[in-house]
């Protein structure tokens, strides 16, 4: 994989920060977007009644 070589060659601090930020953004945006998408399709009242 060329990416591994790039990460090893480049200075670690900036790349680690960028990669970590990207992973955190994806980890936060994906579940939040998924929840919002489901909430938009299914009314909140029915989902709340199903949970309780």
Automatic annotation (TrEMBL):
Task: Give Gene Ontology CC terms.
Answer: Golgi apparatus
Q: What is this protein called?
A: Transmembrane protein
The species is Pyrus ussuriensis x Pyrus communis
Q: Which UniProt keywords apply?
A: Membrane, Transmembrane, Transmembrane helix
Q: Does the keyword Transmembrane apply?
A: yes
Which residues are listed as membrane-spanning? 15-37
């Amino acid at each position: 994989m060329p990416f591994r070589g790039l990460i090893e060659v480049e200075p670690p601090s900036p790349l680690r920060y960028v990669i970590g930020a990207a992973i955190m953004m994806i980890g936060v945006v994906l579940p939040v977007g998924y929840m919002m998408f489901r909430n938009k399709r299914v009314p909140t009242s029915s989902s709340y009644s199903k949970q309780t």
